[in-house]
Amino acid sequence: MELTPTAPAPLLVLALPEETRPLLRRLAPALNARFGAPKKARRGRFGREFSWPTLRVLTTSMGPRNAREAFADALQSATPAWVITGGIAGGLDPALLTGDARFEADGHFPKLAAFNRLGLVSGRFLLVDQVAATAVEKSRLRAESGADLVDMESAAIRALCRAAGLPSATVRTVSDSATEDLPLDFSRLVDADQQLVWWKLAGALLGSPGRIPHLRQLQRNVTYAADRLAEILHAVVTDETTGAPGDAPATRLT
User: Fold this and answer.
1) Are the CB atoms for 123 and 103 separated by under 8 Å?
2) 3-class DSSP assignment, residue 119
3) Who's near 106: CB < 8 A, 6+ residues apart?
């Protein structure tokens, strides 16, 4: 049964515009045709929400503090039916390749059946407060935690969900594998609010122009991982058998 505009809307939570844009490209046409343009609202200092009567999409900005702030603001606006927090992430399991997905969910999460139909594999996520930039660092985190991917926002959001009694899940796709070094240490290029400082990025590239081709490859990997995430989340929220907004059932993703 399809959700009605009077029912609580599910909430999808992502950190970065690069993650949100491909998802909105998939979701917005059908929702706009049915309900018109989404309502837009600021959430916290850096967050932004797009909402239709049957679905809400929140971008929080990077890092656990920004995630908690934006998500708490969104909860004050309206209580969602359920929450999926998603994003791209660095891999810790060496077997995972760019675009591979893992999920973690409450046992009673309404979309578990959709995850299974899509062929998603459950995994473990490790909350970190800065980007894991080197293969050596990722190997250490893997050895210490046994986690499959790193996470900078989802654990913080799901803790708030548990406190509020909201069913929640995490879905993440790999943007950089466990064996890859990032072309730059992005933790050195952000300010105290986890916002990219462009002059620091420009200085890093001017000082090491040989890193530019590697940065372009990372951008391609990020785009691929974000598109993969959007494909998964679109399939989950448009699954007809569990009452999601949309027009097509979930099919297994390969």
Assistant:
1) yes
2) coil
3) 167, 168, 169
pLDDT at 254 over 50: no
Spatial separation of the C-alpha atoms in residues 89 and 192, rounded to whole Å: 21
Q: Domain residue spans in the chain?
A: 11-181+226-242
Q: Which amino acid is at 153?
A: E
Structure tokens at 221: 């990997």
Residue-wise pLDDT tens digits, 131-164: 899 999 999 999 999 999 999 899 999 999 999 9
Say if CB 155 and CB 64 are below 8 A apart.
yes
DSSP state of 183: S
For CA atoms 235, 239, 244, 247, the dihedral sign is positive
User: What whole-number distance in Å separates Cα of residue 156 and Cα of residue 47?
Assistant: 15
Q: Which tokens is 79 given? A: 């209580």
Q: What is the pLDDT of residue 249?
A: 39
- Give yes or no for a contact between 251 and 99, defined as CB atoms under 8 angstroms apart: no
Q: pLDDT higher for 97 or 199?
A: 97
CB 148 within 8 A of CB 93: yes
pTM: 0.89
Q: Identify the CATH homologous superfamily for domain 11-181+226-242.
A: Nucleoside phosphorylase domain (3.40.50.1580)
